[in-house]
Write a structure and sequence with these properties.
InterPro entries: Nmi/IFP35_dom, Nucleotide-bd_a/b_plait_sf. This is NID domain-containing protein. Residues 174-261, 272-360 form the NID domain. This protein has helices spanning 2-21, 31-132, 181-190, 239-251, 280-286, 337-349, 370-379, 384-388, 392-398, and strands at residues 173-178, 192-198, 201-232, 260-266, 271-276, 290-294, 299-329, 358-364. α1 (2-21) packs antiparallel against α2 (31-132). Strands 1, 2, 3, 4, 5, 6, 7 and 8 form an eight-stranded antiparallel β-sheet that branches. The protein has nine helices and eight strands. By secondary structure, the chain is of the alpha+beta class.
Length: 399
């Protein structure tokens, strides 16, 4: 450093002054005195060289540091310029977005005003429709016994729903539904299961719980369909014949009908839905609740009511774990599907394996490609001839 250099210089000056001013004990007139002086000056000269080397090293070090700081300063300056350009571009972009949002807000306000006007018009139309038909009174007749407490009516109606759930299964998995919950809990607690397939062949499968998304609240907005009618109070007979008879009857203008677009049987409720091409036919037919239709040798009185369209306006779900169903994963494709499924069912039916009575079993096998089969044959040390006979069922399944 600069302070260090001045200190060294001061020391050197002090040494020189001391050596020049101070008196030597050696006699310069004698040979020994001269030699002693020469050694003394050689020693001082070596010290001066060392100090000069230190000063030179310090100078080089400071020059390197100066270059490093200069480069760093240049990099920081360049980075600051880039940041400045970037932030300017970002500010410009945000200003464009802000202007777009302001325009969007203006458009939404206009749209909101239009929607409010349409809502008022729709409310007026709905009030007129409610006076014409009570939606829930148009349901097919069903005998029931009321038991419970009386309370104030509200605007909502409760429906009992049976959801139809589709559960995605990956390849190499199986779903087992036991008759008892305790068995499923025990299988899940054991988790890893060794299944004996015979001939010293065993596979290890893992039991996992099955979680489903179940609806907890469903709110439906309903309206009367202008082109459909719902036909109930039907006799037990061949479905196709009944649909044809109903379609022929309600397609005739003398019966108040018209051209039929589609006729569908609903097996859950045992009713039939007829869709007409024109819109005014359904309303005309529902004005008369009961119609006599020749479905067999004699006429049968059926009930014709409006068809209710429903639109889900609110749906809330909850996660529920199946108490009697277990998912098995990691099932390899080591034999044909039917045999492997039987072996798995036998294993999990045995009490000794922690199982019990099985109510349902569904197995989705792992489908291997030809390349995967060849690689598996290599891993087992099979030659090319043996690989041709290796797991033919899997090869057929994979094509």
């Amino acid at each position: 450093s600069r302070d260090r250099w001045w200190e060294v210089s001061f020391t050197m000056s002090s040494d020189e002054d001391f050596s020049l001013v101070g008196k030597s004990d050696q006699n310069e007139d004698t040979l020994e005195g001269v030699q002693a002086l020469i050694k003394e000056y050689q020693k001082k000269y070596s010290q001066i060289l060392e100090e000069q080397k230190d000063i030179k090293d310090s100078t080089v070090e400071h020059q390197d540091m100066t270059q490093q700081f200069k480069k760093r300063t240049e990099k920081l300056t360049e980075a600051l310029k880039k940041d400045e350009i970037f932030f300017k571009e970002q500010i410009a972009s945000e200003e464009v977005k802000l202007n777009a949002l302001k325009q969007e807000k203006s458009d939404l306000m206009e749209k909101l005003q239009r929607i409010e006007a349409e809502i008022e018009e729709e409310d007026s139309r709905n009030a007129h429709l409610r006076e014409r038909a009570d939606v829930f009174s148009k349901m097919p007749e069903k005998k029931f016994v009321f038991s419970g407490k009386m309370g104030k009516a509200n605007d909502t109606e409760d429906f009992e729903m049976k959801p139809h759930i589709t559960y995605p299964m990956e390849e190499g998995t199986a779903l087992i539904t036991f008759e008892e919950e305790d068995v499923a809990i025990k299988i899940l607690e054991m988790r890893k299961h060794k299944v004996d397939l015979g001939e010293e062949c065993r596979i290890i499968v893992e039991a996992q719980p099955v979680h489903l998304m179940m609806p907890s609240l469903v709110e439906i907005d309903t309206e009367i369909c202008p082109q459909r009618i719902l036909i109930s109070n039907l006799p037990k007979m061949d479905t196709e014949t009944m649909q044809n008879k109903l379609e022929i009857h309600f397609s005739k203008s003398k019966n108040g009908g018209g051209e039929v677009d589609f006729c569908e049987f609903l097996p859950d409720s045992g009713t039939v839905v007829i869709t007409f091409v024109e819109k005014n036919i359904a309303e005309r037919l529902t004005e008369t609740e009961h119609h006599e239709v020749k479905l067999t040798q004699t006429k049968h009185k059926v009930r014709v009511t409006p068809f209710i369209n429903g639109k889900i306006t609110n749906l809330e779900t909850r996660t529920s774990m199946c108490r009697r169903t277990v998912l098995l994963t990691g099932i390899p494709n080591v034999m044909d599907q039917e045999t492997l499924q039987d072996m798995l069912e036998i294993h999990f039916q045995k009490n000794g394996n922690g199982g019990g009575e099985i109510e349902a079993f569904l197995y989705n096998p792992l489908v291997l490609t030809r390349h995967q089969l060849i690689q598996e044959g290599h891993s087992l040390g099979l030659n090319s001839k043996e690989q041709n006979h290796w797991r033919p069922n899997s090869l057929q399944a994979s094509g």
